[in-house]
Amino acid sequence: RNMRRRAARTCSKQGLRFVARRGYKVTHVHRAELSAKSKEIINATAPVIAEHGYAITRCMYKSMFTDHPELTEVFNMTHQQEINGRPAQQPVSLASSLYGYAANINNLGAIGSVVEQIAQKHVSLDIVPDQYAIVGQQILKAIPAVLGDAATPDVMNAWTEGYHFIADVLINREEELKKEKEAQFGGWRGFREFFVDNTALETADITSYYLKPTDGGPIPAWKPSDYIGLKVNTGEKNVMRNYTLSNAPNPEYMRITVKAEDSGLVSNHLQTNVRPGDKFHLTAPCGTFFQEDHIKEDTTIIMLAAGVGITPIVSMVEHFTAKGIDNQMFLLEGMRDRYHEAFHPFISKMEKKHLNFHASFVYDTAPDDYTHGPLQLDHVMKNVPKSLLPDSVFYISGPGVWMEPLIDDLKALGIKRDQLHLDYFGATNFS
What we know:
Low-confidence stretches: 1-31
Strand content: 15-25%
Number of strands: 13
Largest sheet: 6 strands, antiparallel
Strand order of the largest sheet: 6-5-8-3-4-7
Number of helices: 12
Mean pLDDT: 89
Distance between the termini: 25 Å
Shape: globular
Helix content: 40-55%
């Protein structure tokens, strides 16, 4: 309720009308400054964005990093790479957002939750208004570079107006979020210095880092599954990364749990070089994955995770079990093999301690007496009584290549979109 009130105030300040339903979904957003002509043209270009959006955003990012190399410190450059024949994650994400904006320009309420996700992500990276000007310039340069003569003056005028409209909405929402986080007990704006109090090796390639503020001050309450922005000096340059807080909210420390990826500049630096006593600068916790107002007394909570996607889920398990809720809870975790069982002892302990919490593990490679993966719909159906599904809420976390087929299968089974809460590891998919 408080989030909806704050969002309504933000929209009111910008000349927007905001009517919210559950969570961050908005049923109507309107701003008089966006002309009818521009909306008509932007909407008409939606099929073009669907077809050529990736080429536009790929061109845009290449140009932007050439013109503004300092922005490579903000963006994860791994997400700019086309790996194993798959499109680069960050350009795909931006292309998806551009298409969603164009397709819903006459009903912006349909993307209200996406706007909130983007705003939270930008606050965690300490994005500033000047960077919107750079991105806008680069997008508007990439459109005619890709579309050629199809990018007529009318099309470019409409998209110029449309970009500045949505940028203004995001800038104002992000400023409001920054003020809220600063005003929170123990909160701050921008960056705050923390030190590594302890580390724990969860698997051969996954390490947890326990972080405490060097000023000895309090830590603000956060929502389970929230994430922080971490500024890291790798020895070559300062870079920013987002990491999920893998523990439930507590006043003493924050814990991030990081997998050392094969091409991960920061994750490998952390695992190889970071020790207790080392210091980092963090942004305040952000996120939209966890929405407790969707959980009623009779709601079944189904948590599905693959790989290091367990990190936001384990924070929820810790939160739910500490509260002692009576809801039926099911956790299904997919992992590579039995040597990559992050948080397995904790999860098994919670299952023995709480009769309403049920955990199952699925392995890509395992002995015959283990359940074989990858984690798919049939594993859900074997472990969760079908009668509980209509009144359930799903929290799904992991890589998009695993999540998207599973989401399609759940929808085909009759699970509604508003029952699904998604946390993509990698560049966020806003579709």
